[in-house]
Amino acid sequence: MASPRLETYCCPNRDGATQLVMNFHPEVFCGVCIGSAAVSLVLTVLQLLPKKGQILRKMPKASSSSTILLLISICDILGGLGVIFRSSVWLGFPGFIANISVVNGTDLWPSAFCVGSAMWIQLLYSAGFWWLFCYAVDSYLVVRRSAGLSTIVLYHMMTWGLAVMLCVEGIALLYYPSLSSCENGLEHAIPHYITTYAPLLLVLVVNPILFRRTVSAVASLLKGRQGIYTENERRLGTEIQIRFFKIMLVFIICWSSNIINESLLFYLEMQPDINELPLKNIRSAALITWIIMGVLNPMQGFLFTLAFYGWTGWRVDLRWRKREIPWESMSSSTVGENTYPSPVNYQTNIHDSKKVSTTDSQQTDEAISMLSEGNTSGDDRLTRSSPIYQGW
């Protein structure tokens, strides 16, 4: 799981709230983290592998949206591997981890492992948050026809640059002046928690706004495509809206427990004695949400693939062949070609005004295709009856 408490625990003079959750049945907690991360890792990889009987069309190039979705899954996979490695060491070598609690200890390896593994998990999940924000921005720019594959370079610079900068800054402030003598007190740790949760809160607040504006822009595109807004176009817009809703639903399910847990722990830290009897219910709620975090945080990778692509099936095709990988296709193709095909102009001699209309329609179809790519749950009858399909 990903929590700033992991880094705080690396300080020998850690606060009482951090001590409370980290010492609450650590064997059970690490086992839960390993199980959840392992299941999510296996199912995520299974989702991304090509499947037998899946008809894949050759596409000229991948879109920026498909690349971002793949990068989000990669961040989740690498973050899950970090959770498995860290929890396995904690379970297998309890004496090694116990040395962290020794103030001014001479053995630096336990502390180095604690800091390194915690930073790896935080960095990868924070990068995933930034990529999810970039996906919302890119979706909006695509329908506004202001984005393309070239913008992925800017997304890389923003995502990895901000993730590394915030992670390093938060860790440096937390461990000042040194790891063996961290400054104690809630005020000193606040910058670290802000840098950890800033991208998470950004996605929770800004992404729904961008998704809502994208859906409105899609409706305008579909209306302009044929000059009318039929039931087919309305259903197509609804499918894109549902896809955005699934993405935000998964994100809220996986990370709302972190916000609740951190709020409870901050409240406990502000109390003179967190072991007082009136605080029993709050301590219990903090411990329960702590365990829930260990289950839901690593499961984000698999749940996101369900939101992105739907269930892709069990039949994996591991034979190498020169073809487009599934996440780069516009939409998963079935026997009925359940995709939004790239427009093809069948007329060779048309007027200039007709060419302008064709180019505009092609850009519209490509924008809709990018937003719906990878979605295996689309209705084939809707696709073939849609003017976007019939117009070509």
UniProtKB/TrEMBL annotation:
<feature type="region of interest" description="Disordered">
    <location>
        <begin position="371"/>
        <end position="392"/>
    </location>
</feature>
<keyword id="KW-0812">Transmembrane</keyword>
<feature type="transmembrane region" description="Helical">
    <location>
        <begin position="108"/>
        <end position="133"/>
    </location>
</feature>
<comment type="similarity">
    <text>Belongs to the G-protein coupled receptor OA family.</text>
</comment>
<comment type="function">
    <text>Receptor for tyrosine, L-DOPA and dopamine. After binding to L-DOPA, stimulates Ca(2+) influx into the cytoplasm, increases secretion of the neurotrophic factor SERPINF1 and relocalizes beta arrestin at the plasma membrane; this ligand-dependent signaling occurs through a G(q)-mediated pathway in melanocytic cells. Its activity is mediated by G proteins which activate the phosphoinositide signaling pathway. Also plays a role as an intracellular G protein-coupled receptor involved in melanosome biogenesis, organization and transport.</text>
</comment>
<feature type="transmembrane region" description="Helical">
    <location>
        <begin position="24"/>
        <end position="46"/>
    </location>
</feature>
<feature type="transmembrane region" description="Helical">
    <location>
        <begin position="287"/>
        <end position="311"/>
    </location>
</feature>
<keyword id="KW-1133">Transmembrane helix</keyword>
<feature type="transmembrane region" description="Helical">
    <location>
        <begin position="244"/>
        <end position="267"/>
    </location>
</feature>
<feature type="transmembrane region" description="Helical">
    <location>
        <begin position="190"/>
        <end position="211"/>
    </location>
</feature>
<dbReference type="GO" id="GO:0033162">
    <property type="term" value="C:melanosome membrane"/>
</dbReference>
<dbReference type="GO" id="GO:0032438">
    <property type="term" value="P:melanosome organization"/>
</dbReference>
<dbReference type="GO" id="GO:0035643">
    <property type="term" value="F:L-DOPA receptor activity"/>
</dbReference>
<dbReference type="GO" id="GO:0035240">
    <property type="term" value="F:dopamine binding"/>
</dbReference>
<keyword id="KW-0807">Transducer</keyword>
<dbReference type="GO" id="GO:0050848">
    <property type="term" value="P:regulation of calcium-mediated signaling"/>
</dbReference>
<protein>
    <recommendedName>
        <fullName>G-protein coupled receptor 143</fullName>
    </recommendedName>
</protein>
<feature type="transmembrane region" description="Helical">
    <location>
        <begin position="153"/>
        <end position="178"/>
    </location>
</feature>
<keyword id="KW-0458">Lysosome</keyword>
<dbReference type="GO" id="GO:0072545">
    <property type="term" value="F:L-tyrosine binding"/>
</dbReference>
<dbReference type="GO" id="GO:0016324">
    <property type="term" value="C:apical plasma membrane"/>
</dbReference>
<keyword id="KW-0297">G-protein coupled receptor</keyword>
<dbReference type="GO" id="GO:0005765">
    <property type="term" value="C:lysosomal membrane"/>
</dbReference>
<keyword id="KW-0325">Glycoprotein</keyword>
<dbReference type="Pfam" id="PF02101">
    <property type="entry name" value="Ocular_alb"/>
</dbReference>
<keyword id="KW-0675">Receptor</keyword>
<dbReference type="GO" id="GO:0072544">
    <property type="term" value="F:L-DOPA binding"/>
</dbReference>
<feature type="transmembrane region" description="Helical">
    <location>
        <begin position="67"/>
        <end position="88"/>
    </location>
</feature>
<dbReference type="InterPro" id="IPR001414">
    <property type="entry name" value="GPR143"/>
</dbReference>
<comment type="subunit">
    <text>Interacts with heterotrimeric G(i) proteins. Interacts with ARRB1 and ARRB2. Interacts with MLANA.</text>
</comment>
<keyword id="KW-0472">Membrane</keyword>
<keyword id="KW-1003">Cell membrane</keyword>
